[in-house]
Amino acid sequence: MTTTTESDAPDAQWARADEGSALQRFFRATEIDTRMLGMLGALLLIWIAFHIMSDGRFLTPRNLWNLSVQTSGVAIMSTGMVLIIVTRNIDLSVGSILGFVAMIMGVAQTSYLSSFLGDHANFTWAAALAIGIVVGAIIGGLHGLVIAYLGVPAFIVTLGGLLIWRGAAWWVTSGQTVAPMDSTFRLMGGGPYGAIGAFWSWVVGFVACAVIVLGLVFGRRNRRRFNFPLRPMWAEYTIAGVGCALVMLAVAVANAYPWPKGIVRRYVQSNNITVPEGEALFISHGIAIPVLIAIGVGIVMTFIATRTRFGRYVFAMGGNPEAAELAGINTRWVTTKIFILMGMLCAIAGAISTARLNASTNAQGTLDELLVIAAAVIGGTSLGGGIGTIVGAMIGAVVMQSLQSGMVLLGVDAPFQNVVVGVVLIMAVWLDGIYRRKQS
Question: How far apart are CA 345 and CA 355, in angstroms?
Fold first, then answer.
């Protein structure tokens, strides 16, 4: 009988790494998720196609900046939808929860908080956001309790929630639009003042690059510490280089989008800035605040999903609910917490939506549940449970919003836009089934 010693393992590892084509060896060495790479490739093709069909209007700093802002809300909610679908549940009520919570936050700002806070009115935005998050958590918790402890299927509970909270949003103001919002609160919606400018955008970009490099360094140390296979150094350099290049490219695009001329003119007049005759003052938007919020939520949700006991329980339940319960996991309470988290994310997305519109309307969040579910599924979350990534869902949100943005540029009617989204969702589920069968 032959045995493999510890010293032989690396040789076997490199022997396996040398097998296959050059492309296969590259993917094996860099450990790149080919499914996510394919999704990024599809996104790039969509962008190029819309750019050509729109006569060069799609891949412009203005459109890409607006695209990033429009994606933020759906991307935030899709991170929670990943955990829900991973546990073999579904939430059809996220758009209605967003609309109801947004209306609550709007009414709180316009009717109550300013007079209640008095001298502390500068904190109106924080109080409104806190109220929204609490209300969202209560709604999500109510859904979770009915699903987990009363045994009502998530499909039925959230379908009922879709109708209940949409009607409740109308009932709060009898269908009236609520406006305007607190000036600080509006910064969460983007716009010229809702962005951090060129300097701080570059700072964010360099910090992100430093985080990428440090993550690779510490990751390599941990691999060595636990005797895990190490990536070749060229692979580490490639990942770091490509990651930093993409970050800096994104910052450059955000900084290439200037303030509108009218706003620049008012800014110059109010600040007594002298501009030479015949020249124009170029002020960059930089990265929008809602985009930073979405990135922050994505980082937190990734940590929760991959680095906490709760996250491990979620994926264990999705992989095998019966085994998870026999292992001692309180599956009912975990399910409830997932829906609480989903409600809180809907509230954050609702705050961004309200800030962008500078108003709370009864139409907010309509059909967002379709976009959120599609984003999660397109991003690799399996409806069969147990499989899904936060990053994939956020990229899926970009794909869905890119389709909508491109169709708007082409003048496609809104009903047909919904047809396209529906077809994309069906195709995503079909491709997921093919992928799962190949993996098994």
Answer: 15
